[in-house]
């Protein structure tokens, strides 16, 4: 009897079906995201706002939104224009980051931050310098390895293109023997007209039916506004069917500012303070927001909390500042992180 076709070999059709089903199951997996919301007051002695801003080290984008505002105040505009510079040093030997002269010149004097440039944390070796002088190494694998400045010299034998941000910096002269560039953050200023805005009450973090929207609803709405999505839920809009949560009100003008670069936590704290002072004089706006996004490929989020990319890489926070100095704070991380602090 002639041998049957394919005898002794795996059933190719059945194997293909199993692989397809496994792939579909993976595609259906929704990445885990964590969002923590809390409320406090800037005058409260236990308020965490300053600490959480100062310990979110590697900031890529800062945005603030002011409803019922058509022109930015001089104080806010001056802070926005003074949000840089930062520096790019190409092919820098990593041992330079643990040199005594570098530590004395930058690290011991306070705010100095560094991060590898144009690397993918899930594919490449990533290096981050924290303002406390600790150097974080993230190797190209699923788990992290961290080391301080006391690590073995061999750990710092490679070269990386690094971006730096530091207060009162003399980076250009210090790294003059390397290819160094000074860069300015990109600043986008715009006025949004006829913007539907959620109605909020500072004491109602979870919202109140037919009276106020929740913190989570506001968070989603901000994402749509920052993405320039339409908010009218038109049936023929094939890009977005999102609409503003209810209850809402339409504001004639809202001022939106976005700063993109490598922004110091100290600069962000000054912006937050100035937004609080915005309500020193009576305003039509009941609240303003300040949103900060970290670099997706930073090996840390807050403090020394390990951060990964996996399916998103987000780590961000948002303040909602109310006219009575109450605030909401929202902290979010992606699929590979522990709960925000």
TrEMBL record:
<dbReference type="GO" id="GO:0004526">
    <property type="term" value="F:ribonuclease P activity"/>
</dbReference>
<dbReference type="GO" id="GO:0000172">
    <property type="term" value="C:ribonuclease MRP complex"/>
</dbReference>
<dbReference type="GO" id="GO:0000447">
    <property type="term" value="P:endonucleolytic cleavage in ITS1 to separate SSU-rRNA from 5.8S rRNA and LSU-rRNA from tricistronic rRNA transcript (SSU-rRNA, 5.8S rRNA, LSU-rRNA)"/>
</dbReference>
<dbReference type="GO" id="GO:0000171">
    <property type="term" value="F:ribonuclease MRP activity"/>
</dbReference>
<dbReference type="InterPro" id="IPR013893">
    <property type="entry name" value="RNase_P_Rpp40"/>
</dbReference>
<dbReference type="Pfam" id="PF08584">
    <property type="entry name" value="Ribonuc_P_40"/>
</dbReference>
<dbReference type="GO" id="GO:0001682">
    <property type="term" value="P:tRNA 5'-leader removal"/>
</dbReference>
<dbReference type="GO" id="GO:0030681">
    <property type="term" value="C:multimeric ribonuclease P complex"/>
</dbReference>
<protein>
    <submittedName>
        <fullName>Ribonuclease P protein subunit p40 isoform X2</fullName>
    </submittedName>
</protein>
